Write a sequence for this structure.
């Protein structure tokens, strides 16, 4: 399985450790095409390619070849929103995770999309449980997307 993981880079790297933990967990299900998003050494400059065009074209190629998308969307990011728009247009299964304890509401364009499963989570253990359920459901015949939210 090819997994596209999305998380903020130029929008802010305050969740880089969270992304790293998710990328590590996702490796247990298959190849994570965008492992660099979990690199805690990657700065907000987004210096993971020689120029912006290279990064765009590389990431779009990965998006086209992936089987599903998992995104951590607590930190707003224009790039992640762009990727999610394309992923839904390509009819990829999409899971968006966001921390339920944040005071910032999730974008209506993400939370309101019937093509995106949005899930509020509380900690890495909860995130791992929700990612596992999503991947298992995405691989099941007739899989649908749906929204779920709230921390227990």
């Amino acid at each position: 399985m090819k997994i596209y993981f999305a998380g903020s880079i130029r929008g802010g790297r305050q969740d880089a450790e969270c992304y790293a933990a998710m990328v590590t967990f996702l490796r247990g299900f298959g190849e994570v095409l965008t492992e660099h998003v979990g690199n805690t050494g990657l700065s907000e400059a987004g210096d993971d390619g020689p120029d912006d065009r290279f990064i765009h074209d590389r990431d779009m190629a990965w998006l086209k070849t992936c089987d599903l998308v998992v995104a951590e969307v607590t930190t707003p990011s224009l790039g992640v929103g762009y990727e999610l728009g394309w992923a839904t247009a390509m009819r990829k299964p999409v899971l968006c995770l966001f921390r339920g304890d944040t005071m910032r509401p999730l974008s209506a364009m993400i939370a309101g999309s019937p093509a995106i499963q949005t899930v509020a989570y509380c900690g890495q253990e909860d995130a791992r449980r929700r990612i596992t359920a999503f991947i298992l459901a995405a691989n099941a015949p007739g899989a649908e997307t749906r929204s779920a939210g709230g921390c227990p």
About this structure: The two ends are 31 Å apart (CA to CA). The longest strand covers residues 94-99.
